[in-house]
Design goal:
By secondary structure, the chain is an alpha/beta fold. The protein has 11 helices and 9 strands.
Length: 283
């Protein structure tokens, strides 16, 4: 496994396992299979509704806690955001069965972002969240958060895949010490990603699948990837991406796939902002 060092010295695996959209009833088995395959980074969120299942998989694995890197995410909190953020953190810890998190992310750039972030800063100073970061923050929101607070986010988890590559944004984040992490690395199969002739051609050249090419492309750029699967053989395949390297020419060919736009939704769209901001999780 390869690692990246975050801006506070914490080491984070470059490749992990995500559980977004895996039903809670299937998550424990999927997470357990991922751990058995060698994954040590697990990525979940309060909004996914499967933290307890991830926690059960961690407990049953027998893997020492210090060998694992566990991420979960804070959903938009009602006022007072600082108090509610701390309660939400405690709820996630309880569901996961852990006494600390390796990374705690603010899931959406909405609500009382400052209040939420200051509570997260306190959790970080206490050592209960080893690193803190954000998700779905566009450049203006990220810079605003950095300029007006003390702790610079360690990570920004954003949509990143061959059709929305975020190279310029990655450069900006690198300049400020923020690590980019991908969600939707396979674009959920949109634009026929798994049969894309260009990616398939590179896969044939390397003796690898399209999925492996995409994951190698991400990790070779220094982008943390968290592919999801419920099939153990696919988990193993996705984990097997560090025994080859894409050439500069192959990387340049993949670059031409970039459309510069989301394949899902724009976090700056007023209707989406309203929907996400008003959504509340069940207690």
């Amino acid at each position: 496994m390869q690692y990246v060092t975050l801006n506070n010295g914490v080491e984070m695996p470059l490749l992990g396992f995500g559980v977004y959209q895996i039903p809670a009833d299937d998550t424990e088995r999927a997470a357990a299979d991922a751990l058995a395959a060698g994954y040590r980074l697990l990525d979940t969120a309060a909004a996914y509704g499967n933290e307890e299942a991830v926690g059960r998989a961690i407990k049953s694995s027998g893997i020492p806690r210090e060998d694992l890197f566990v991420t979960t995410k804070l959903w938009v909190q009602d006022a007072p955001a600082q108090d509610n953020t701390k309660r939400a953190f405690e709820t996630s810890l309880q569901k996961l069965g852990l006494d600390h998190l390796d990374l705690y992310l603010m899931h959406q750039p909405y609500g009382d972002v400052y209040g939420q972030w200051r509570a997260m800063e306190a959790l970080n100073r206490e050592g209960r969240a080893k690193a803190i970061g954000v998700a779905n923050f566009y450049p203006d929101r990220l810079i605003d958060l950095m300029v007006n607070n003390e702790i610079v986010p360690a990570v920004n988890q954003i949509e990143t895949h061959p059709f929305f590559q975020r190279a310029d944004y990655q450069d900006l984040m690198r300049e400020h010490g923020v690590q980019i992490q991908s969600w939707g690395g396979f674009a959920e199969g949109r634009n026929d990603l798994f049969t894309n002739p260009l990616l398939a051609g590179i896969g044939k050249e390397c003796g690898k699948s399209v999925a492996q090419v995409v994951l190698r492309w991400l990790t070779q750029r220094g982008v943390i990837a968290i592919p999801k699967s419920v099939r153990s053989e696919r988990m193993a395949e996705n984990f097997d991406v560090f025994d080859f390297e894409l050439t500069d020419e192959q990387m340049a060919r993949i670059a031409i796939l970039d459309t510069g736009a989301s394949l899902f939704f724009d976090h700056r769209d007023p209707e989406m902002v309203t929907w996400l901001s008003k959504r509340r999780l069940d207690a």
